[in-house]
Amino acid sequence: MQVQHPHAPFNAAVRAGSAGSKLMGIIEDIGPEAVYFAEVDGKRPAILIVEMEDASQIPSLRNPSF
Q1: How many domains does the chain contain in total?
Q2: Cβ-defined contacts of 21-26 (< 8 Å, 24+)
Q3: What does the alpha-carbon distance between residue 14 and residue 44 come to, in Å, rounded to a whole number?
Q4: What is the pTM of this model?
Q5: Is 66's pLDDT higher than 80?
Q6: d(Cα 32, Cα 1) in Å, to the nearest integer?
Q7: Cα–Cα distance, 61 to 54 (Å, whole number)
Q8: What residues does 46 pair with on adjacent strands?
Q9: What is the extent of the structural domain holding 56?
Q10: Strand (E) or helix (H) holding 41
């Protein structure tokens, strides 16, 4: 799963010191096997490796956000 955060709200969270705790909360809620942070086309996505039994689980994984 690839998640992209809008620059302005994410940068504001970084400046406020809350980005780390928000990211950790999302990661704890989803429980991925691995998490990677990258630069793709000028954006900073987080790539989460998750195991699903069925594709119907995708919407529940997408709900946590900034």
Answers
A1: 1
A2: 22/66, 25/64, 26/64, 26/65
A3: 13
A4: 0.69
A5: no
A6: 9
A7: 12
A8: 3, 37
A9: 2-62
A10: none
pLDDT tens string 33-54: 999 988 888 888 889 999 989 9
The single-letter code of the amino acid at 54 is: D
Q: Which two tokens stand for residue 27?
A: 């990661």
Position 4: which residue type? Q
Helices (H), the chain: 7-16, 19-30, 58-62
Assign 45 to helix, strand or coil: strand
Question: What 3-state DSSP class applies to 62?
Answer: helix
Tokens at 9, concatenated:
């709200």
**One-letter amino acid identity for 1?**
M
**Please, are residues 44 and 5 in contact by the beta-carbon 8 Å criterion?**
yes
